[in-house]
Specification:
The chain folds into three domains: about 1-55, no CATH class; about 65-290, Rossmann fold (3-Layer(aba) Sandwich), CATH 3.40.50; about 305-370, Orthogonal Bundle (Arc Repressor Mutant, subunit A). The chain contains 16 helices and eleven strands. It has helices at about 5-15, 20-30, 30-40, 45-50, 55-65, 110-115, 125-140, 155-165, 185-195, 210-225, 235-245, 265-270, 280-290, 310-320, 330-335, 340-350; strands at about 70, 100-105, 115-120, 145-150, 170, 195-200, 225-230, 250-255, 275-280, 355-360, 360-365. Helix 8 (about 155-165) links the parallel strand 4 (about 145-150) and strand 5 (about 170). Helix 7 (about 125-140) packs across helix 13, helix 8 (about 155-165) crosses helix 9 (about 185-195) and helix 15 (about 330-335) packs across helix 16 (about 340-350). Residues about 370-373 have low confidence and may be disordered.
Length: about 375
Amino acid sequence: MSERDARMALCCAVEPGNLELTRLVAQHGAESVIAALQAPDSKSRWSRRARSVDLVAVQRATKVNRLRFVVPGDDDWPDCLGDLAEVEPVQEMGGVPFGLWLKGEPNLATTCASSVAIVGSRAATAYGQSVATDLAAGLGLHRVSTVSGGAYGIDAAAHSGALATDAPTAAVMAGGLDSPYPPGNASLLQRVAGQGLLVSELPPGEHPTRARFLARNRLIAALSPVTVIVEAAWRSGARNTVSWAGALHRVVAAVPGPVHSATSVTPHRLIREAEAVLCTGPDDVLELLAPLGRAPVPRPDQRRRLDELSPDELAVYEALPARGRRDAGEVSLRAGVSLPGCLALLDRLAEQGLVAQVEGGWRLVRAEVGGRS
């Protein structure tokens, strides 16, 4: 049996995130570990499953469903998954996956090299879904991929936002890729596979379980340098992903929400306890992604033209009515400047396009009327 086949067999025989066996594979190789599990005298809890693995059937299902199986060392394999070998366990889980099934054309390593994990509540509010969609779409415009879990709520909104910009997106699943879960997101996940990738460490035919969702979360956190949590209640699977991101020394960001919403509890707590950076949009995330020493992402200039005026120029400008005209003498009186000085200031404002001389006096240029205060 080759190392690749041995890793596929282990994915079939052992539940994801098994610390003991992932460490044994790192020390002795997959061929040695699967042979030991399949030995007649093995006492491991996984031996029965290991002996029942029909590798030919799994390989056939992989081909029929147009999947590919990748292992460490393959071009598709993201090196960042290696960090899982060193991290402290979360809920007694951990370890580098033995291999991954992929569905979709993009290269997984390339897709994840510039990516952000966006996670949150399945029972998301309209606000949370809108934020997740806008966040993924805004990042997609900068060719930043989105990684999420394909679930209802925030996950689905994030994938949809990425798809809207033709940016790659990866959905990491907790079951086999022959039957993506949840069924209600089947059309969305089909679109994800068409533009991006479906990812799982479980073979075709396997269904999600609570433990598999928790194990899946470590992959979402490991694949991206930044994890953003949009909405999550006090007890949430998204909180588990954030715990993995923190353990992996990834950057964590949280989107604030309405203070009366139960789905704001976890993001607000993470921000308050300095476990997450406050995030209000794509620009905040792009800054977090930028290497140290790079200039911050340019922000829209909030200054107005009036901010550059001297006190006397502003006084003359404000002495003009919002509508209509006023002669220079009246402007001089209202602004508290001499008439010659007022005329000079009016000429200066006219050069800047803020006022114009008309028959019977001076008026504001219409484009600036709405922004005078």
